[in-house]
Amino acid sequence: MDVTSFKPLWLSLCVALAACQSGAGQPAANQAALHLSTASAAPLDAESAQLIATDKFWPGASQLLVRPDSRGLELLDAQGAPLSAFKGRFEGLDHRASEEGLLIATLDRKRQQAVLLGLDRQHQWNQPLYVPKTDFAIEGLCLYRDAGRNGYLFLIGEDGIGEQWLVSAGQKLLAAPQRVRGLSLPPESSYCQVDDQTGELVVNEENVGFWRYAADAEAPLLRQPVDIVQPFGGIAEAAAGMALVPGGMLALDPETGALHLYRRDGDAWRSHQVIALDGFDEPEQVSARLGEQGLDLLLTDEGGAHTARLDWQPKAPPATPVIPMLPAMVQTDPVPHLGDAADDPAIWVNPADPSSSRVLGTDKKGGLAVYDLSGKQLQYLPVGRLNNVDVRSGFALGSKRVDLAVASNRDHNSLHLFAIEPHSGEVSGIGEIDTPFNEIYGLCLFKDRRGAIHAIANDKDGTFLQYRLDGSSGSPRGEQVREFKLSSQPEGCVVDDRNQRLFVGEEDAAVWTLDLRSDAAALEKVIDVGGPLHADVEGLAIYSGAASDYLVVSSQGNDSYLVLDAHAPYAVRGAFRVGLNAERGIDGASETDGLEVTSANLGGAWSRGMLVVQDGRKRMPEGAQNYKYVPWTAVAEALGLD
């Protein structure tokens, strides 16, 4: 095949990725002017340089420099006089400033390791914190501080290899950095920067352009172009260093000596202007901060760092509402299978010893796992592809009484039943009940006013069937007592036993409810997708409190959990996310499928109950999926619940 036949495909790909839509090469009318300071005639001797975002911790502090000799890292005032220094041979630089001090990341040339340094308000340097040696040569690095004030370090290596490390909680460095995840990045990358407000990581690809990623540890590793080289974008030849400011980005093409300005337009970047840096010798790095008359700049080329002012101040994006981030207190052992395997949890409360309660979690590639309250796996039953699971107490099985767990078995399109021994919590299979489903999916249980246990299961086509379960003969049986249908795919469901009310999730549409006290099958809408609820609608759970009942919904599309009153008019009480726990080394939860909650006093941190969520992306370290536990007290305090 002639290679020229690939040209239309490359152009189509460019359009699909929105690189051609960036507006590159179409400057806005309000042109910005660059003013070099008089000090630029004698540039600062530096290999890397950054302007400090705030001088609250040290009035007059202006710049950080990495010198090309053994003078190392220096803090300078506005006139270029040294205020403090840390000796060594370093390469590359990034920092975060706050009223508590400075957090600085650089590369120790001698040891070929990334190192973190802290400078406090008393102007004391902390002991260097070294990141463990990587398996690749580090070409660049940058810092990120998330909404929970956790500090991360991105390392960029050769041949498209990278890593993300957790390095601090608040302003305090960790005793030992923790690897969060590996990154697949563009080759020929040396520079990166992160916008903490938007959580966006920008990385260069020298001969291609600039790419952006979500910086959050729980985000998927997907990239989008900011701008690429001509003829498909506005960059003439190459992409090097960049700087991010609220609503704007500055980026360098060292081959042509051009400074590109980009402005944020919603979720996209648009080219604003290209400024020729006449007299500069291959400018590679730029640092920027908001000043009184626009942007203050440091531009670093072969001759050192040059100060400048740019009379441009892009429009900052509106602040987005902050969703509370609650740290996971416990995580379970991983499920045995890799990939998208863990799905739905259930909580069995031990009536004799609540601290010995169990969490059951489905592995939809192989079976059912049983965990204790510390997250340790106690049992694994390899019975097939189980999707959802629920439990209820007091099931008559022949002449004895057991607690019951039921799961949807996708291998057999059946209800798979398990007995839970009331004293030990040991789980054992007791049989299956066939269904007419072609693709059984979600499932939940409820106990009616007479004490009978029912299973409600759904098919991917939206059909729901309700079965009254009976084990009096010693073998489980199911009698169908109700059928209804949604117009599109459902999965999660839960029953409020106290009020005999069913809640079901239609993944792309809404949450619905049905009164189970009658034979009716007409559903009432609780909440639409849109607004605080983001598709897919996944797990549903009921918190039955002493004063109030709450419905908890997994809002998978924005990695959050929505809490509503479990009675009409179903008022939204707030949303939260499950974030990482730096102290315990537990990553957060994202892309959650199933969840469960109990109001039972399980002792200790679980005195007001606990929430269990499936974690769709296991980080720190990366591995098979698992489940995270969160004390209900944390949810109640964050949202002001009874």
Summarize the structure.
By secondary structure, the chain is mostly beta strands. Helix content is 3%, strand content 51%. The strands form twelve sheets. Strands 25-46-45-44-43 form a five-stranded mixed sheet, with helices on one face. Strands 1-24-23-22 form a four-stranded antiparallel sheet, with no helix packed on it.
Textual characterization of the structure:
GO terms for molecular function: inositol hexakisphosphate 3-phosphatase activity. Keywords: Signal. InterPro entries: 6-blade_b-propeller_TolB-like (IPR011042), B-propeller_Phytase (IPR003431). This is 3-phytase. The chain has about 650 residues and is mostly beta strands. About 5% of the residues lie in helices and about 50% in strands. The chain folds into three domains: about 40-185, Neuraminidase; about 185-315, TolB, C-terminal domain (Neuraminidase); about 325-640, Neuraminidase, CATH 2.120.10.30. The strands form twelve sheets. Strands 25-46-45-44-43 form a five-stranded mixed beta sheet, with helices on one face. Strands 1-24-23-22 form a four-stranded antiparallel beta sheet, with no helix packed on it. Strand 10 and strand 11 form a beta hairpin. The longest helix has 11 residues, at about 5-15. The protein is elongated and about 95 Å long. Mean pLDDT is about 90; it is low at about 1-30.
